Amino acid sequence: MAGTKITKDNKSVLYNIAKVANLLEKEKPFLKEVIRFYEKVFSLQHETDPDITKDYSDLKNKKEYPLITRKDFYIDFENSELLFKKICDLCADFEIKADTTAKIIKEYIVDKDFSFQFLAQNYLAKDLSLPETVTGNQEFNYNVFDFILYNSLKPSIVKTSKIISSYFKDQDHSGQRFCPVCASAPSLSLFSKENGSRSLVCSFCWHEWETNRLYCSFCNNSDSTTLGYVALENEKGIRADYCDKCKKYIKTIDLREYRQNIYLPLELIASIPFDMKMTEEGFKAE
């Protein structure tokens, strides 16, 4: 049945997610509930293995970037719908701020057989229009809905991205500010453990590509006098790089200094203190 098979690789990732969540909880006990919630979400994603049947081999000779747009990602709809329902239930179980919206989604969309495929295809086309019965509820939150829907599609998106990126793994994308796979903005920056080279991580498909060390990944500014970073006490190996020109920032993890066990989606969430600090300073993430 769709959504039930767990591969050997996924079992290894599940073990790592649990280990990283435990470490983060000890490091940041004030984020315990948030960490545990996201641990469950990410674990649910890796308990499934979407079936990507679309052939992307025609992209091997494509020279223009991005290689595809959001709506070109192949989605295993059966698999994703099961995950969609599980994440809705998870929100209710944790009784967090997403609780009410999750219940509305369950009542008006899932339980009334609203076409999940139609919903997903609209989302990939950046259309989040919904029936008035949903949007008319004052407690419905579009951001929560976006979160649940994206995370239910994410396993298919990431797996498709890995297939596509394998076709150009030896190509140079240094200086490419946006994802060469799907053109989305980066959500994270990394310094490699081996030589400190810099790479960016896509906020949508999680593709990672090596890029230039000193420049703003949002406006291409390379003037060192307007670029800087913020480090926080007790946050070893992670910082926020900012640009005074466009007033944007990106969190950067230096793998040479960071702890050995790492799971990037959890690290991104648990680094909320940087988001709070940078917002106070007048900067914003993409």
Q: What does it look like?
A:
The protein is of the alpha+beta class and 286 residues long. It has two domains: 8-165, no CATH class; 186-280, no CATH class. 41% of the residues lie in helices and 11% in strands. It contains nine helices and six strands. It has helices spanning 8-27, 32-46, 77-94, 99-110, 116-124, 132-135, 142-165, 264-270, 272-280, and strands at 186-191, 198-202, 208-211, 227-230, 238-243, 248-254. A six-stranded mixed beta sheet has the order 3-2-1-6-5-4, with no helix packed on it. β1 and β2 (198-202) form a beta hairpin. The longest helix has 24 residues, at 142-165. It is globular and about 55 Å long. The chain starts with 7 loop residues before the first helix and ends in a 6-residue tail after the last helix. The relative contact order is 0.12. The mean pLDDT is 89.
Please describe the structure with a list of short key phrases separated by commas or semicolons.
alpha+beta, single chain, 6 strands, 286 residues
